Fold this sequence. Notes:
Layout: H1 2-27, E1 34-40, E2 46-60, H2 66-71, E3 75-82, H3 87-102, E4 108-122, E5 126-140, E6 143-146, E7 151-154, E8 167-168, E9 171-172, H4 176-183, H5 185-191, H6 195-200, H7 208-212, E10 219-223, E11 245-250, E12 263-270, E13 274-281, E14 285-291, E15 293-299, E16 302-308, H8 325-352, E17 365-369, E18 382-386, H9 392-395, H10 398-406, H11 420-426, E19 434-435, E20 438-439, H12 450-459
Parallel strand pairs: 1-14
Antiparallel strand pairs: 1-2, 2-5, 2-13, 3-4, 4-5, 6-7, 7-16, 8-9, 10-11, 11-14, 12-13, 15-16, 17-18, 19-20
Helix pairs in contact: 4-5
Amino acid sequence: MVISRILLVSRAVIMTVLLATLIIVGTSVPVWAAQLDAQINPNSDSSPFKVNYQKTIFIEYPNGGQLFDELHTKSWTLSGTADSSNAGVQNLMKRLNENIADSGSQARISDLNVLYDIHLKGRNINSSVDYKVILSGTLSEYVITKDQVRTLVDLGWRGLSTNQEIQIDGIDINHPISLFKVEEPLLYSIVAGTEAEEILSKNMINADFIAQQPLTNWHFLFDPTGVTSDAATFGLDKSISGFVVSSWTMGESSIREGRQVERVFEAEINSDQKYVIRTVQSADQANLSAIGFGALDILDGVEIIGVTPTPPDGYATTSTGDFPIFIVYGMAGMAAVAGIAFFFVSSRSLKNEKQGQQGIDPSKLVGYQTSASSGGYQTNRGEAQLRDDTNYQQTRNVYEEHNTKNSPPTPSTQEEAACGCAASAEMHSECDCVMQGACLCDGTCRCNAEICKEQVSSMS
């Protein structure tokens, strides 16, 4: 039994590990820290977008050392903004448009603003560097074609990434290692030529995963009631009332979309002391909205949407999965049929049961009073008992039967004496109270045999 239980537990553990491995391997994908938000107006030549890139860098010195001496009391912040008049922003806009074109999209960034914010905070155990780059701008040339019925909108531009050096205010905002080379030369000299340098050289401006995740895996919602309250979001007025707004959202961690967790890179450095460099990036998120009802499609390998002012007739879904309405109603109908079948079977079972009075017939019961008066006060308490013992065997308590079986036997009467001599007399045979050398007489036996009398005398 113990061996069987051990084998059963072992099999359960093995199956759990295999399932977990399958989920992790099957859904593990590169995750980069980018959060995209865009509102597309197919009736306009341009629309706003915003993308946020974030990373946190930890420099750990648990045993002290030169980095501890240099950083543990230090705190500084570098931040700034720049628009499209800045040469560095113009270079970034060019690189992003090259990346968009390489993906097959025809859309272009026509205006761009950059905000960067870098903050170092020293502590006794480690120092942290919060690194943030925010791009906000205007997207144009995303309308592929337009007629009186439908507008085709290009969505292949959403992977806004570049690996090139982007210099703004003398700082390469795209590669943290360049910042440390200028601001923290001691740290740079320690990490140079190590695995930590490769980690710190990864580009910040990277939204490749947002482009790689098919829009069919995103959650789709649309508002069929009009977007008067959302007009300000699109920079429009109440004239858009009556249109619908379609939304696609990416960011859920699931088997369908893939595991999305914090992206962590770590490297150890053996210098004067043991140091650890760790970078942490949050999971990607994206929200795309378009005025009108958007139907996904692919054109020349690029994901697009066909936008109409209203949803097609009979389309009633407002969530991911594109469930046709007949499937929804069909599932509800199946539930109703199952409920009807359940009540039908229950009704037939009830009819097959014995009807009428069950248990003791009330006419066979008689009541008697059990309360007594005290001080001029008397209650009306009473009990019921059977008028006679007819059919008692059918109505008696099962616990009483159980107790009767377990109760000791009553003493035998003279007529039911357990006497071997009496048994011999009944058979009209010679009285022989000696059986196998033992007398079977008891105190109730009236046998006249001497041996029996002696036995009875000894028992009295």
